[in-house]
Every structure is written in C-alpha cells, then in structure tokens.
C-alpha cells in the first residue's frame, strides 16, 4: 500500500513523472550521503569549506564553537534576560550542577554528530527540546515572553550555526537536486503546513488535557517555587494551538520530511527503483521483519520510511524528556525530581503521539 501523502500533492499526476530516474541510486544502494550533491553556489562553498577541515578535528571544533558562541551570546543579553531568569534559578556554583549541564550538552552534540544530522535537523530538534523549559517559565513563573524567546533563540542558533559550518545539508531537504516523487511531495509547502497543523494540534491536545486534569495540582505540590497556576487555568485550546504552531511545524521538519523525502525511500510510485515491501517469508525473514509482522505493522517488515519515522520519533521523545527534566530540576529553584519527571513526560508523550500520527499519514 502506498503512502497517504501523494494524494495530498498539488499535482498528483507528478507521481508518474518521467523525471524520476535511477541515477541517484546507482552507486549508493539507494542511500545518498548527506555531504553529496551540492548544486547551488552556497552549498558548494559550504561543502568546500567543511572538506578543508580534517575529519579528526571536526567534532572537537564543533564542541568548541558551540560553547564559545553560547557563552558570547548569553553574555551579550545578560542585562536584558539575566535578572528575570536569575529570579527563578538555582545557584549553579556546585560542581555537580555544572557537570550535569555540560555533560548533557556533550551527549546531545555527540548523538547528533553520530546520527549525521544536518544543521536544520539540529535547529528543529533543539527548538522542540527546549520549548518545554521556556513554556514552563512563562506559564508558571511569570517570565516575560521576550525574556523566554531570546534564550530559546540562542539555544537554537548556537548549535545550528556550528553544524552549518561543518556538516552538509540532508538530501531530503536539498531543493536544488533532482528529486524522487516522495521528495517532491515532502518539500511541498502546502503539505508541510497541513502536517505542521496536525502536529501542533496534537501537542496542544496533550498539553490542554494535562492543564485541565491533573497538572495544576501536581505542579503546586512538586514545584516549590511556583508563582501561579492561573495562566494554565485561563489557557484555551485555541490559544495553545497558536502558541504551539511553530512546534507543530518543527515536528514536520524533523520527523515527517526526512522520513518521506529520504533518498532511500522512493516509495511504490516507481517500484523499479527500490520496492519497499515484498511478501513476508518466515524462512528468510530477518528479526526486524518478523517482529514487524507479529506486531501487525507491515506484511514484509519495517520499510525504510517506517525506520526513519521510528528512530526520529524516539530521538525527539527521549531528547524532549531528558532535556526538559535536566533543565527543570537542575536550573529551577525548588523543583523536585518527581515534578521534573511529570512535566517532561507531557512533552515526551506529545512527541510520541505526533510521531504515530505521522506514521499514519505515511501509511506505515
């Protein structure tokens, strides 16, 4: 069965376009490396610049650039955002506080580098992982919107810029290179906005449901320095949908677009390129194919699209949980471990639900 997505295309007849050829898959087994195919001058210049840096020093340089840029930008805005954030922050002079924050940042960078994410991947993932922290500060601690948005922008840019300098663009987002049918669909602006609205709606549903059931009382009990829960009580589902609109769009960019637009996922629109599914054979099936068959996901195991969806959904859910927990417990005065776990779980659940919804859209 093919994806639901091609039927959303502005030009559905394009799925039979003769522009789809096998030349992108001839020498790569259907997988094109992220640092290949640069057709625009800007992409070519960035690739040339990155290629001049020895591979052995790229990651240490990435870490150095990230921490240096973060330190510089935070020092520049300290007079503006510092007083408000300091009013709710723990004293981070203890060695374990610093070790946890620095250690988690190194883990983030290491995983992102190992997973071969590009700067766009990291920008969206960082946004999705840090929004819960600043949403908490704004909603329950009265931190001004601008005082929350400025450090959020710094968090995103200080990890995206170094990756932009040292890592090329993911093939799924390369609008200048020849496209498979699924890449054309994934890069369609209308489809991205529709799936983004779906993602925002699911995030808003999870957060709104928590606000109007168990969360306010839970926050009062487990966040000792909490200032007010009135804003949570006054929040409507439509206001949440508007606030979380960028979050929904970010989930589309991090989960949906790479899965649908991967060069290894031409789909069944042209089975000659790389058929996604074959009849299930228990005698020759791999462990993953057998697992998928028994769980009812597919007649022939997990497709490449399903693998990317699952991996990215897991990474987002795990990153959102760990980052939200670490920042809530380590940096906010009066936060209990149980409180940080509860708050982080909301956003991890929202990420998981959104990934499942995108799986349905992709017909996995």
TrEMBL record:
Transmembrane segments: 55-74, 94-115, 122-143, 149-169, 190-215, 235-257, 313-332, 338-361
Domain of life: Eukaryota
Keywords for the protein's UniProt record, in alphabetical order: Membrane, Transmembrane, Transmembrane helix
Protein name: Uncharacterized protein
Organism expressing this protein natively: Pseudocercospora fuligena
């Amino acid at each position: 069965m093919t994806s639901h997505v091609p039927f959303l295309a502005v030009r559905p007849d394009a799925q039979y376009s003769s522009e789809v050829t096998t030349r992108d898959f001839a020498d790569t087994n259907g997988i094109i490396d992220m640092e290949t195919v640069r057709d625009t001058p800007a992409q070519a210049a960035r690739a040339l610049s990155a290629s001049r840096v020895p591979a052995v020093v790229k990651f240490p340089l990435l870490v150095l650039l990230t921490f240096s840029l973060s330190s510089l930008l935070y020092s520049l805005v300290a007079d503006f955002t510092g007083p408000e954030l300091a009013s709710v922050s723990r004293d981070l002079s203890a060695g374990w506080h610093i070790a946890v924050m620095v250690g988690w940042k190194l883990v983030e960078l290491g995983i992102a580098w190992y997973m071969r994410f590009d700067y766009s991947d990291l920008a969206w993932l960082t946004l999705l992982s840090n929004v819960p922290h600043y949403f908490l500060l704004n909603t329950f601690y009265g931190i001004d919107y601008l005082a929350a948005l400025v450090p959020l922008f710094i968090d995103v840019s200080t990890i995206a810029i170094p990756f932009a300098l040292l890592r090329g663009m993911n093939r799924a987002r390369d609008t200048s290179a020849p496209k498979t049918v699924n890449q054309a669909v994934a890069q369609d602006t209308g489809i991205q906005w529709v799936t983004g609205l779906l993602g925002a709606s699911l995030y808003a549903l999870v957060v709104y449901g928590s606000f109007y059931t168990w969360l306010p009382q839970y926050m009062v009990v487990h966040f000792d320095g909490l200032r007010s829960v009135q804003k949570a009580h006054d929040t409507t589902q439509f206001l949440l949908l508007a606030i979380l609109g960028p979050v929904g769009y970010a989930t589309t960019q991090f989960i949906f677009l790479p899965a649908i637009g991967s060069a290894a996922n031409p789909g069944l629109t042209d089975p000659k390129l790389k058929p996604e599914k074959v009849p299930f054979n228990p005698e020759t099936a791999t462990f993953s194919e057998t697992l998928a068959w028994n769980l009812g996901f597919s007649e022939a195991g997990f497709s490449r699209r399903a693998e990317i969806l699952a991996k990215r959904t897991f990474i987002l859910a795990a990153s959102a949980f760990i980052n939200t927990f670490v920042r809530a417990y380590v940096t906010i005065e009066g936060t209990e471990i149980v409180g940080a776990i509860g708050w982080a779980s909301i956003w991890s659940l929202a990420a998981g639900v959104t990934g499942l919804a995108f799986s349905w859209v992709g017909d996995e």
